[in-house]
Structure formats: C-alpha cells, structure tokens
Amino acid sequence: MTDVRSADPAVAASPPPGAGPEAGRAGRGASLRAGAGAALPAAGLLIALAAWWLIARLELVHPAALPPPGGVLAAFVDKPAQMLEHTWDTLLEILIGFALSAAAGVLIGLSLASSRTVERMFTPLLVAVNAVPKITLGPLLVVALGWGQKPILTMVFLLCFFPIVLSTATGLTTTPADLAELVRSWNASRWQAFRKVRFPAALPQIFVGLKVAMPLAAIGAVIGEFQAGESGLGFVITQYAGIGDTATAWAAIMLVALVSILLYSALVLSERIALPWVRETTSSR
User: Fold this and answer.
1) What's the whole-model pTM score?
2) Which of 27, 33, 256, 267 qualifies as a FRET site for 114, CA 20 to 30 Å off?
3) Any idea of the CA torsion for 182, 185, 189, 195, to the nearest 10 degrees?
4) pLDDT by residue (tens digit) across 219-241?
5) Whole-angstrom Cα distance, residue 255 to residue 184?
6) How far, in Å, CA of 270 to CA of 111, rounded?
7) Directed axis angle between helix 138-145 and helix 199-228, to 10°?
8) Which of 6-10, 78-82, 171-175, 234-238 has the lowest mean pLDDT?
C-alpha cells in the first residue's frame, strides 16, 4: 500500500477525524487568543501615545508641562548613556528595596499568622505605619540616614512591606477547609502541615502582595531620589524640571514606567512558572 501524506500544512495541522470539529475550533481559538494577547499591549501603548500626541498638538496642556512624544524621544536620544546610567541606579534601588521588603514582609506575615496574640498586638501598629504619608518622612530620613541609598532603600521598604505582610498573613490564615481536614487526618505535625499544605496554599495570595508591592517599589525609589538622591531617574526629574527641560524630565518618567512594567511582567512570569497549578485550577483565562 502506498503511504500518501499531504504536503499542505493546513491539512497536516488539521485535527484527526475522531477529534471532531470542536478540537479544531479549540485549537484555532487558542491561537487567536495567543495572537491577541501579544498584540493588545502594543495596541494599548499606541492608543496612549496617540492621545498624548493629540493633547500636545491641541495644546490642551501647556507644552512646558507636557511636551509632545517626539520631543521626549529626542531628549532621550540626545543623552542615552546618561539616562541609562541613571536608570541602572534606580533599578538597583528598586530591586534591593523590594527584596528586603519581601523578606521582611513574609516573615512578619508568618509571625502574625502563627499567633493570635502577636496579630492583635502588632496589627494596629503596622496599620498606623502604613497610614503615614511616606513623602513626609523623606526629610526626616535624610536627617537620620544622610544622603545616598540608605534613605532611598528605607523609603522603598516603607512603601512595599505592608501589602506583602497583609497578603502573607491572609494566605496563611485562609487555608482551604478540605486541605486542613486532610492534614488533620494524617496526624501531621505543625511543621509538616505548614510545609506541605499551608505555605503552598498561601503562595497565590503572597504573589498578589508581591505584585501590588512591585510598582510601589518604583514609586518609593523615585520619591527617595527626590529627597536624598545623588543619581537615579528621580534625581534626573528634579534636576531637569528645575531648569525647565521638561522633555528630559518626561523621558525619565517614561523610563520609570518602563522599568516598572518589565519588573511586574517578570514577577508575573515567575508566578506562572512557580505556581503552574493555579491557572489550571482557578481560571480558564
């Protein structure tokens, strides 16, 4: 018998006869969703840029306050090495401050979840610290810690740690009832229950706190650089806005936004890699 194979890719990629039309539609739907997922962020960016250009073109905002996108791009092209150097400084401050706040936030959340007494004792204090407008602490941090990275990292920490504490404590105290019952049926020790069930079940909540905290880390770094920075994008914004070069200041603002998007996307990707079961069990998106 002659083995006849189709050379047409569309035919070769078609579902087997037993799969029915539903399988073909599902495959095409998945491909369309993947393509749309890649195109939508670019479309959103183009719409935002078009709106920005139109606002600047019609001078709905004074050009000194909002230069057109082309002027901002030209400001970056004029001094790329300087801008990238300051971007690197801000990126390091964001990453170090975020790592410190993540470690401290998870540990504090563990402490609150492990003891009702500790929770009642320290939760009001944590809420009070979080309620203080952090920008008002900038001058005090400069007085206490001097110029440079110390007050900036402290500002990042103060802005980031509370969402991580809250999400960790919430995740550890809301273990699904069926999993808790399963642990009790095994007569597992407290450490075994924590390691095998409670902490893995809390990881989605912890990642929520981390994703909330990541943009706050960028905000904290820029605020800290406003107050105590000798480099970084916040320093660039204040310096160039002060001399009327708002195009360069806006170029720095756009770089802060870009850094935030990239770091947030990296965190989302890390969550998908570390917790593959979450998407499979909680959502069809």
Assistant:
1) 0.79
2) 267
3) -10
4) 999 999 888 878 889 999 998 88
5) 51
6) 25
7) 80
8) 6-10
